[in-house]
Every structure is written in C-alpha cells, then in structure tokens.
Input
Amino acid sequence: MNSTQPTSPLLVKAIKAFSDNYIWCIHSNTANYIALVDPGDADVCIKYIQDNKLQLSNILITHRHSDHVGGVEKLVKYCNDNNWPITVYGPTKEAIQYSNIQVKNADNIYLEALAIDCRVLDIPGHTLGHIAYLIEDNLFCGDTLFSAGCGRVFDGTSEQLFNSLQTLSALSEKTQVYCAHEYTLSNLAFALTVDPSNEELVNYYNYVKKIRDKNQSSIPTSICTEKKINPFLRCFDNNIKQSVEAYCNATLTSELDIFTQLRNWKNEF
Ligand SMILES: [Zn+2]
Output
C-alpha cells in the first residue's frame, strides 16, 4: 500500500449469529474480498457472501470458544470448493483447527486481498491465549472488552484480564471497538448499580435503551465512550471503589482487587 495516499475508512458490517453474537465482516474498499472475524456460524456467513457476491479471503480468530470458531471448518471447505485462497489466523497459544497462521502480540499481518495492515495484541484473561486485531483505529476484541462490561474469566486469571483491559484502555480514544456480543443493555444495568451517580453513564443507558428498543446495534462503541461509562475500566474511581467495598464488605487497596471483586459481583448479578 502506498502510505502517502489517504486511506478510506474501514468498511465493517455485522453479520448476526445465534442470539447475540456479531460476526464482523471487513470489506475491501476496492474489490469484493472480505475478512470475517470469529465466524461461529458458517451458514449466516455463506448467505451474506452469496447475497452480496463477495469472496472470502481471510478469517481472523480471537479465541477458541465454539461460538467464535464453530463455522471455520465449513467456511474453509466452502472456499476450497470455490477455488478461493483462504488464510485463517488464530492465537499462537490456543489450538484451533484450520488456523494455518498462528499470531501473537505485536505481530503485524498484511491481508493481501484487502490491502489491509493489521496488528495483533495479546489480551489474555477471558481465555489464556485470547488475542485482538487492530486495523488502523478499529479494534476487534472478541470477548475481552464489551460495551459497559468485560468477558468472564474462563481459563485465564483476573490479573491477566485486568492488564488486558488496561492495554485496550490505553489505545487511542477514537478507536472503534467491535466486540463479539450485544450485551450492552444488561451490562449497563449492572454498571448503573455500581456507579449510579455517573451522569454520562445514565445518559448512555437512556441512549442505548432507545436504540435497542428499535432493534439497532449498540456496537461499535469507542474507547472514549468506554472510559467514561465502563466500570471495569474505571476501578480507579472512588465511587466505584466504595460500591465494590460495600458489596464484598472489605477494604480494598489496589485497583486489581477492586476489579476482581467487581467481576465476581457481575457474575452473581
Ligand atoms: Zn468466549
């Protein structure tokens, strides 16, 4: 790519899957090629490809859970049947069938068909090997950061998840956040319980309630918005500290301890 030419904004569309998953479809600006992020269901993707006369060239996987990788086998076969070259990227630390290029933190990958550069970030915690893909100011972060919330700790640790969220929080505020689930409204209900005097959070809840009532998507969100309303990125805040201390009936001395108890509280909410 000639870096002196201005780049067009990344064209990203959502393919809905299961009850609340988003499979993100990244389009080429100049051709009919697409990359899919976490295609848990092949059939909805194949329908999208056929309806829009597209050609799948890349699959990007963030982690091993079946609602993120369940469609990969069928999509690879579909590409092979059509004689389409297909590359499947996945995390180095997780064994994912059909992933033919394993990537890790700070790797730069070039999606040739789409002429797109992509940087890999290690963001363990939800799972041990979870990664994110950053394309310009567009973040594909799977089940790590959600709008107004974060993923559960499965086989990673709370400390890993805390550090991963700190990494994402430090990205440019204009970063668009493409997470893998529409959990925003239920996350906001919890966030309001923890941080009821946060005016921006109250306003954001009212905004999301309206758009969800119209069945519109609340995703992408942005790092700027999340830093204002997401309690899991705001464990430094004294109001949140006090709420969490009241929940666990203990004095907490570190942001990590507040985060860990906040995640426990959300699990029970
Ligand atoms: Zn997951």
